[in-house]
Amino acid sequence: MYLERRPPWTRYRPFIGLLIVVALVYLVGSWFIGLFGYGQNHSMAIALTPEERGIVRVSIENDEWKRADQSLKLYPEDRVTTGANANATLAFFDGTYMRLGEDTTIRIVESDLNDDESQLSAQLESGSVWIATPTTQAFSGTMLRLVTTGMLRISLPTRTEALITERSISVFDGDGIGCTVQVAGAKQPLIVGEGQLFSLPEGPLNAGDDLYAFRNALDPRAFAAPFLEESRQAFALHRQNDQPQTTMEEEDDPIVMPTGTILSVSQPTDRQAVQTASLEVKGLVNPEMVTAVQINGYAAPIDSAGAFALEITLPDKDEATINIIATDKDGITMAETMRTVLRNREPPEPPHFLTPAKDGETYQTQRTQFEITGSAPADAIGVIVNDYRLQFFSPGDKTWKYLASTNLDNLKLGENTFTAVAINQGGYKSEPVTMKIVLGGETEGVIAGNPEESAGEGGQIEPTALPDNDPLQPGTISVTAPTPGTRHTASGTDAIEFLIEGTVPAGTNSVWVNGYKLQLYEIGKLYWNYIASTKLNTMKRGENAYEIVARDADGKILDRFTYVIEFDPRG
Is 28 strand, coil or helix? Predict the structure, then answer.
């Protein structure tokens, strides 16, 4: 019998059919998803607005440069450049706002909206930009905001206000721990938080460079830079114009324009007292006669009903004058009025440290991470600790918290000084208060009190305020460590800190070392200790003499003893 032989591939026919079905389902599904826009990136437009002065040029899809005289919509791969004395703004789909400085070139890399992960990205090729990100995210999924330069890749969180150049970033405001900055050639990114400046020096980086050495607190003068102030004003105007205008009919308490009146100002009233550093000026004009309103030289938007409003920054004076001018289409002044406001420029009361130590105290610990807490004055709208404005403090809060950690680079081995100030609505800062933390050693607790408070309690006072009698119990003080007797020799870098320990007679009420009252000594105890430390400035190179004095409840001297330490760090 003859049997027909089938080709070998026929045995795989069921599998081939299954693959064809899967491919068809995938193609049809992709077409269906694409038809309704599910799961795909949507490339969103960026609004470019050139400012009136100077020349701004654009390159659409890498085409030749053309002058931009009016607002345009840009997309990825489009570029913008500003000339001398020229500025422009970019408004992104998520609410991010960017203002370009003079002689600046920037390229749009991404502007994608997606249900899962949205992203906007721009490359700063030269110059500088001011950028403000929105306070909240108005859509689902995650949002990634990036600005890259030749040396930096910067990730911006919400509520960020920053100034970026090719080799630096200044962060004026920001959520969380701050902006994540990846430096070209570095393995690990670094964090630049609120109130900090990161600036790379010119030239290539060395392999062993510590990037955090290039991060510093912002100079207070940076907050008064003209480019920063102009950018903030432009952003305020942008937000105002982006919101629906309120007409006279929509007002809760509509302003009625008196018959024959050209200009009426409802806010502020003359001689009004204000606490804030900025103020909104509001009013009405006759729209048939007035086409423009200027407030201290800045143009205020006017709606169809003649209502205008503009937020202005007040000068740092006790009395500030606001000049409002209404003009017609030919620029002729139709009406003018002035308002004087009275500024409360008094700084707030200072905040206070509560734990682990109070104002002026020094606390020693071995913990590498702990929480510092404090109290805040009633009129504080913010608290700054070591140039960092606390993110979770809200106006009206009575207490505040600050995390100190070696991992956050705000706590190091040795002595650390923490300074806190409060800010009120006017932007004025209180007098600073300080508290010190010493990381290392063996003691856990307060090792030094507040000199001012101690003086009031009979602690750190002038020797002339205490009895200077002959010892009542001579020979009763002794030193038992680091070497018993009257003298000890310390050498080498490992001997920069140690305890001096000893005994005192019964009836001792206080123990003093070189005029300092020991804070941890408990009345009635027969032993005491004191930290000799180069970090605490209680020991130096060469010979160090320590006079130990025991006093009774009346402050009289029970005994006096001198112990000498010879310290040589080179030994």
Answer: helix
- Six-digit token pair at 20? 């064809």
Count Cα neighbours of 530 within 13 Å in the Cβ-side half-sphere: 24
For residue 115, pLDDT over 70 is answered with no
Could you tell me the residue ranges of all domains in the chain? 42-230, 256-343, 352-448, 467-568
- Is the pTM of the predicted complex or chain greater than 0.85? no
Tokens representing 273 are 């007292």
Q: For the chain, how far is it from start to end, CA to CA, in angstroms? A: 107
Angle at 280 between CA 195 and CA 130, to 5 degrees: 35
Instruction: Look at the block and give the residue holding tokens 């077409």.
Output: 31
Alpha-helix residue ranges (DSSP H) falling in 172-317: 226-242
Q: Say if CB 426 and CB 438 are below 8 A apart.
A: no
Amino acid identity, position 485: G
DSSP string, 434-483: EEEEEESSS--EEEE--HHHHHHTTSS--GGGS--PPPSSTT--EEEESS
| Amino acid at the residue 55 | I
Q: Which CATH topology does 256-343 take?
A: Immunoglobulin-like (2.60.40)
| DSSP H or E run through 308 | strand 307-313
Q: What is the pLDDT of residue 273?
A: 82
In sequence order, which residues have a C-beta less than 8 Å from that of residue 104 and are 6 or more positions away? 81, 82, 124, 126, 127, 128, 129
How far is 161 from 134, CA to CA, in rounded Å?
A: 9
Secondary structure of 219-245 in HEC code, one letter for each residue: CHHHHHCHHHHHHHHHHHHHHHHHCCC
Q: Give the mean model confidence (pLDDT) for residues 498-526.
A: 87
pLDDT tens for each residue of 205-237: 777 778 888 999 888 777 778 888 888 888 877
For the segment 472-481, the average pLDDT, to the nearest whole number, is 93
**How far apart are alpha carbons 306 and 261 in whole angstroms?**
12
Token pair 């048939």: residue: 288
> CATH assignment of 42-230?
2.60.120.1440
Residue 559: CB partners within 8 Å, gap ≥ 6? 471, 472, 473, 474, 475, 476, 477, 504, 505, 549, 550
348 is written with which tokens?
């707030």
Tens-digit pLDDT profile for residues 27-82 = 655 544 444 444 445 677 888 988 877 889 998 877 888 888 777 888 888 999 99
Handedness of CA 39, 45, 46, 47 (dihedral sign): negative
**Per the structure block, which two tokens stand in for 124?**
């700063």
Neighbours of 367 (CB within 10 A): 13
Bridge partners (DSSP) listed for residue 49: 89
Residue 160: Cβ within 10 Å count: 24
Does domain 467-568 fall under CATH 2.60.40.10? My reply is yes
Architecture of domain 352-448: Sandwich (2.60)
| Gyration radius of the chain over CA positions | 35
Q: What is the pLDDT of residues 150-205, one digit of tens each?
A: 999 999 988 899 999 999 999 988 777 889 999 988 888 999 988 899 999 888 87
Pairing status of strand 527-533 against strand 161-165: unpaired
- The answer to whether 42-230 and 467-568 have equal CATH topology is no
